[in-house]
Each structure stands twice: as C-alpha cells, then as structure tokens.
Amino acid sequence: MSKELDELQELARSATQDALLDYESVPKEWKENLTLGTFFPDDEHRIFQLYVATERPSDAIIISTARVNRNTRLVDVTISNLKRKVPE
Question: Exposed e or buried b for every residue in 31-44, given b needs 16+ CB within 10 A?
C-alpha cells in the first residue's frame, strides 16, 4: 500500500472509531468476518468501508463508510446497520 493510502486509511480509522462511540457494539458473531474494503471512486476521494463479509458479496453487512478527501484530508463517516446508543 502507498504511503498516502496508509495515511488516508489511518484518518478513516480514527474518524470511524470516534463515530462508532455513539452506537452499540458490533455483534460478536460479526466480528470474526469483519473486512475492510477500499474504493477509488474518483481521483479526489478514497472510500474505506468496514463490513461483515458473507458467502455472497451482495449479502455483506456494511457497518461504516468513511469517505476521505485526498486534498483536504476531511473525512465523512456514515454508520449503518448498528443502533444508536440511547442517552443515559
């Protein structure tokens, strides 16, 4: 992996960890199949997607999608398939 991609992945990881603090934990039965996918939708962005791999790729369960701008280093994280924590 390139140095730039490593840096972008670390930005995505950190932002995703922060975003996940507001959600319930990933179910333990999902944890053994967690996978990180990396996508290059255009020249300006990199997308890092945390998902639960399944036998059929179309059935994968997406947990988070972090879109990182290569120029500004801004990260936008979307969490899916997890419940938000109820405020205490």
Answer: eeeeeeeeeeeeee
